[in-house]
Write a structure and sequence with these properties.
Oligomer: single chain
Largest sheet: 6 strands, antiparallel
Number of domains: 2
Strand content: 25-35%
Number of strands: 11
CATH topology of the largest domain: Phosphorylase Kinase, domain 1
Strand order of the largest sheet: 3-4-5-6-8-7
CATH class of the largest domain: Alpha Beta
Helix content: 25-40%
Distance between the termini: 32 Å
Structural class: alpha+beta
Length: about 190
């Protein structure tokens, strides 16, 4: 099944929606004077929808067909945010994230520049519920919730040891949860 077919299946309710989607899956953003949104090609990635937006970047769900078929989260610097300071911060973020090697942190797969000299990086797409929703839905007791929280703490500690300090960690940024009730697993997708 292609990334786009998987995305269409998710939108129809057959599978979980992206963990940090807020109904913006059909949104577009303008980049470099051209519309960037679903269907646009950035490097080897086809954009499928918007997952989220931060201060200087937009994160898209994207499909990669070559050399490996997979869905990724593709972060692109926003239009008009290409000052030297923002570009330096973005380059530092993607380089630092690429160096993180931890089982509870999403992996960076690729990085590059668009034809309009904008920067992007592709990282592991994490699918699942936010940790708070998962805990409530599964009615986890305190011990089970703390077991998950320790995984988050372990990921944050690893990032701290690499010099990354998350300046606005909040419940809505917490990692999604994978696995069965007996074996939940967190994977942080935003460590910077």
């Amino acid at each position: 099944m292609s990334g786009e077919e998987q995305h269409d299946e998710e939108q129809s309710g057959a599978a979980a929606k992206p963990c940090f989607s807020k109904g913006a899956g059909d949104s577009t953003a303008s980049y470099g004077g051209t519309g960037v949104g679903p269907g646009a090609q950035i490097g080897s990635f086809t954009l499928l929808g918007v997952l989220g937006e931060g201060g200087y970047g937009i994160v898209y769900l994207a499909a990669q067909e070559q050399p490996i078929r997979r869905r990724v989260a593709l972060k692109i610097v926003k239009l008009g945010m290409n000052s030297r300071q923002v570009i330096a911060r973005f380059e530092a973020e993607r380089q630092t994230l690429a160096l993180l090697d931890h089982p509870n942190i999403a992996h960076v797969y690729d990085a590059g520049a668009t034809t309009e000299d904008g920067l992007y990086f592709a990282m592991e797409f994490i699918e699942g519920l936010p940790i708070t929703e998962y805990c409530d839905r599964e009615k986890l007791d305190l011990r089970e919730r703390l077991r998950l929280f320790l995984q988050v703490c372990d990921a944050v500690q690893h990032a701290h040891q690499k010099g990354i300090i998350h300046r606005d960690l909040k419940p809505s940024d917490t990692p999604p949860v994978h696995g069965r009730r007996r074996d939940p697993f967190t994977r942080c997708h935003d460590c910077g």
